[in-house]
Amino acid sequence: MQLKKKFNLSYPKLSVLGFFLIIIIGAILLSLPISSRDGEFIPFINALFTSASATCVTGLVVYDTYSHFSVFGQIVILALIQVGGLGFMIIATMFLLALRKKIGIKERGFLKESVNSVHIGGVVRLTKHILIGTFLMEGIGAIILSIKFSYEMGMAAGIYNGVFHSVSAFCNAGFDLMGRYSKYSSLTRYSNDTLINLVIMFLIVIGGIGFIVWEDIYKHKYKFKKYQLHSKIVLCTTFLLIVCSVIIFYFMEMNNVLEDVGIKERALSSLFQVITPRTAGFNTVDIASLSEGSKLLTMILMIIGGSSGSTAGGIKTTTFVVSILSVVSLIRQSEDLNIFGRRLERGVLKQSSSIITIYLSVALLAMLFISFNQPELDLRDIVFEVFSAIGTVGMSTGITSSLDIASKMMIIVLMFCGRIGSLAVIMAISNHTNTVLTKSPVEKITIG
């Protein structure tokens, strides 16, 4: 009885353990000679870094994926991206459904937390829809990209690249195989290609809005008023962030990286570069060449990230909106957080504040550590790298390959926390539960 209780894991603990095991298995496979083009073992720390980046759908790399890894290694990375994007609980449920196994109440509870669903009822049906929707979207993207790539790469390579980049984009991973043309070039080769830009951006946005929003759109189609409050907040925030950011980016870079390109490429590059920080990691312009203002905008977008229950990272759009609403309510001297004619529950502000505080605290500690460990690195590059890692974005100014073992381990921890959630990691580590039945006396303090 005691042994059974010991292994009765909560979802945060199961999530941390599950992702950790997947990363370790991936690292072992990637370190094998069969995974590299030169047929030699690679340092385990680099294999671990790549596995963590793929599983946590980040995209930061110490090796160019195409030129360093063999086809086997690339397929391992692709599998890690797919598992990491969907979450191991959804993948496990997929196998249980395929084997016609019964899914119990405990498993349904884990699924509910995995997809950030409000209700446990219908969570298995929601999971089925997630799986169907994922493979459908990835399939459509893969077909379009395969046709496009086949013209310049040949049919076999075109199909392979189409599938790889579709899955990577949908899962917001940012891994690419464009090293065949130039190492670490991402999608800069296609900055003026309308079709590839639109397909990749569409996959990133669809993957980043979250599974709950998918279900709402599936059930209610275009009837926005019938959507859940969560879906309304996500869709409106996503739209406003894209529109406002693209205007800011365009004017910041029109005399910099966009100066010598046509109006179509300016528009595509501006749109792409404000969508990909939330949190895909692809880029069609050189990140290191961006103005300081654009880098700051990119970091802000990386911090916000995508939406709850999605393949994206960051503090999430709903957390960002709650923090804005708390400021508005304070200015209006109102105790309630109101939006779209609804009042948010009391605990949501506490949860939101905790997420933001932990997120920024972990990021700042990581910056201090890397700055102390490698003082030769530029602080601005370190800040960008840290927010890219904890936001599971994968964009870099070029310092990833320059990190030493200690700094790489710190980035691995950040990617891990970013994918699972820093709050979830802390909850998994902590065994403390508040069982005190009495409350302490109230006393006022001065704030601000």
Beta strand count: 2
Integer average pLDDT: 86
Return residue spans where pLDDT drops below 50 for at least 5 consecutive residues: 1-7
Helical proportion, percent range: 55-70%
Structural class: mainly alpha
Q: In one word, what is the shape?
A: globular
Number of helices: 19
Keywords: Cell membrane, Ion transport, Membrane, Potassium, Potassium transport, Transmembrane, Transmembrane helix, Transport
Pfam families: TrkH
Main location: membrane
Transmembrane segments: 14-32, 44-63, 75-99, 194-213, 233-252, 299-331, 352-370, 382-403, 410-429
Structure, explained:
With 448 residues, the chain is mainly alpha-helical. The chain has one domain (8-425). It is 63% helix and 1% strand. It is built from 19 helices and two strands. It has helices spanning 2-6, 11-31, 44-55, 65-68, 71-86, 88-98, 105-114, 123-153, 155-170, 194-209, 211-220, 229-253, 263-275, 292-304, 317-331, 347-373, 379-390, 405-420, 422-429; strands spanning 338-339, 342-343. The protein has a two-stranded antiparallel sheet with strand order 1-2. A hairpin with a 2-residue loop joins strand 1 (338-339) and strand 2. Helix 9 runs parallel beside helix 10 (194-209), helix 10 runs parallel beside helix 13 and helix 12 crosses helix 13. Residues 1-7 have low confidence and may be disordered.
